[in-house]
Specification:
heterodimer, A: Rossmann fold, Alpha-Beta Plaits, 2 domains, 10 helices, elongated, B: mainly alpha, 12 helices, binds adenosine-5'-diphosphate, binds magnesium ion
Chain lengths: 304, 272
């Protein structure tokens, strides 16, 4: 069952196309990471999913319906775009109560979501005095009011301390375990690696990758090997002849791909070459992500 | 699919009604301190001006000629406080909308209530209800306090039962409510408190002050303008310029309605 279906979504602001013919789906029971560098169009896409911005072209449906046609929106979708979006002089309880009442939800739901997000103690406090982490929890509490099956979070861990990040991450995982569809955006790959099951990567508004997390990890771990030897030139030729691809690394080292470090070690012993270093290079996830989105970022740099 | 640890019962929410939206907007309005500060300010300033302006009218009355005494309108004098009160009640109306834009809360409100006309209509109804109650209460309080002060000074004063008095006082309350509606419309169109307030001040103070500069074909507009023709209902002594003062107030209400229509149109169309 597909819950969020984005089809050919396009958004133009004046001459700029900030979301460009984007299509992807979000499935229940998964955390779908929505990844892209700053300015890639993640927030704009989420606003279009929620009917806050009108698409120039294309469509978004949630369970087959447009957001604005949902009869009781909060019971189907919970969304947190900006944790700062609370009125500082309103008490946390009243903030949630107004939202619950607007969708005809029972009053006791307010207490229940405050409990689940660990905010019972500050229900009567004004949100203006909350730390960013507490506001983030208040925003999460609001998304849970209607017990929705679809949750949408825009950069929920931005600016949080490590403990807050861990809490949010565990929280999203538990929501997905309960069978909900969770769409969460980020501009940091490392953060997604520990949270998401599925990845939708965009750059400059275009879809770059739509893949499972495990697939992405496998692809990005096909690493290279750093080799140092007193006389790299001849060894490089031998390696190439042996079927590996070799390029020059830093400080007259060699970066070898197409052979494992074990194979290179045996190869060196066989040819009587002394190695001073033999290190497998695991491309970091961040590197893999940068590689993936480099074109889109560079393009943005030149047009900006 | 499993659910929350505490199994929620959502059976009460099969559909959202306008009553739900109204109740939610009322909770939002009453849960802000600024709402109550603004209302307190309305009464403190509104009545304060009445008291100050009415406390030393005996001398002035003494110096009037017989003809001028004919035109002595104690009701209108006690309602003059509308001049400042309209700005304060305007701030209340503006903030109902602009405070949500300033905090970003408008996005949250619209995800909870994606039918935009319904959300804005609920804001309009709730804020207008508050403005009607506050506006009438202020006008009646200002009238009663003002007349009591005149009585103490032994100057001719009016009672609620005197001809034309009730309609002048209630007309003042209605005028203030219409200004609150205008303010909501301006707040929605401008989306920013400062811009909306500046526009309101321009409409109620600046334009009337420079009305003489406008060409004659535009002068007719001032018969229906706030602080101008539209406040003719606040008088009990007939003004030859405005033989049918309720028509003048009605004309202003039409203008306010036009601003609100524009507000509803842009509120639906714009991205948030
Ligand atoms: N209301 C707007 N008007 C004009 N340009 C906008 C508007 N909102 C966003 N943009 C532009 O669209 C691009 C994508 O923005 P955004 O969706 O916020 O990206 P992300 O969330 O991925 O960082 C950016 O270049 C941004 O400047
Ligand atoms: Mg963003």
């Amino acid at each position: 069952m597909t819950v969020i279906e984005v089809q050919g979504l396009t958004k133009r602001y004046g001459p700029d196309t900030v979301v460009d013919d984007l299509s992807f789906t979000v499935e229940p029971g998964h955390v779908t990471g929505f990844l892209g560098p700053n300015g890639a169009g993640k927030s704009t896409t989420m606003k279009m999913i929620l009917g806050l911005a009108a698409p120039t072209r294309g469509s978004v449906t949630i369970g087959g319906r447009r957001y604005r046609d949902l009869p009781v929106p909060l019971t189907e979708v919970g969304a947190l775009l900006d944790a700062g979006a609370v009125h500082g002089s309103r008490k946390a309880y009243d903030h949630l109560l107004a939202l619950a009442v607007s969708n005809g939800l029972p009053r006791r739901r307010v207490g229940e979501v405050l409990a689940r997000t660990g905010l019972e103690g500050v229900a009567g406090k004004r949100a203006g005095g909350f730390s960013l982490g507490m506001r983030q929890r208040l925003g999460l509490a609001a998304t849970l009011l209607g017990d929705p099956q679809v949750l949408i979070f825009d950069e929920p861990v931005n600016g949080l301390d490590p403990e807050g990040i861990r809490w949010i991450r565990d929280f999203m995982r538990s929501l997905a375990r309960e069978g909900r569809a969770v769409l969460v955006s980020s501009h940091l790959m490392s953060e997604m690696a520990q949270t998401a099951d599925h990845l939708v990567v965009i750059g400059r508004g275009r879809l770059i990758a739509d893949t499972s997390m495990s697939e992405f990890l496998r692809a990005s771990s096909e690493g290279t090997v750093l080799v140092r030897t007193p006389d790299p030139g001849p060894f490089a030729l031998r390696l190439t002849a042996g079927g590996a691809t070799v390029r020059e690394g830093p400080e007259s080292s060699l970066v070898v791909s197409g052979m494992t470090s074990e194979e290179i070690g045996k190869f060196a012993t066989y040819h009587g070459v002394t190695l001073s270093e033999l290190t497998p290079q695991r491309a970091s996830l961040e590197d893999a992500f940068m590689e993936l989105t480099r074109d889109s970022v560079e393009y943005q740099g030149t047009t900006a | 699919m499993s659910s929350l640890a505490t199994v929620p019962d959502m059976s009460t929410a099969s559909n959202v009604t306008f009553a739900n939206t109204l109740r939610a907007e009322w909770i939002k309005l009453r849960s802000l301190r600024s709402t109550w500060y603004t209302l307190a300010c309305l009464f403190v300033v509104g009545l304060g001006i009445t008291l100050l302006s009415m406390s030393s009218l005996a001398q002035e009355y003494e110096s009037l000629t017989a003809a001028e005494r004919q035109a002595w309108d104690p009701t209108n004098l006690s309602l003059r406080t509308y001049i400042v009160a309209q700005l304060i009640i305007g701030v209340l109306g503006i903030l109902v909308v602009t405070s949500e834009y300033a905090t970003g809360l408008m996005q949250t409100s619209l995800t909870a209530t994606p039918r935009r006309h319904r959300l804005l209509a609920a804001k309009v109804v709730v804020a207008t209800a508050v403005a009607v109650v506050a506006g009438q209460a202020l006008m009646f309080a200002a009238f009663l306090a003002g007349q009591a002060l005149l009585a103490v000074q032994d100057v001719p004063n009016a009672g609620l039962g005197d001809p034309g008095v009730l309609s002048a006082v209630a007309g003042g309350g209605l005028y203030l409510s219409a200004i609150a509606l205008l303010a909501i419309g301006l707040g929605t169109i401008m989306r920013a408190t400062a811009g909306a307030l500046a526009t309101l001040v321009g409409i109620v103070f600046l334009l009337p002050a420079v009305s003489g500069l406008f060409p004659s074909w535009l002068q007719g507009l001032f018969d229906f303008w706030p602080s101008q023709g539209a406040v003719a209902v606040l008088a009990t002594v007939p003004d030859p310029d405005y033989p049918h003062p309720w028509l003048n107030l009605g004309g202003m209400c039409l203008g306010v309605a036009a601003v609100l229509v524009a507000a509803f149109v842009v509120f639906r169309r714009r991205d948030v």
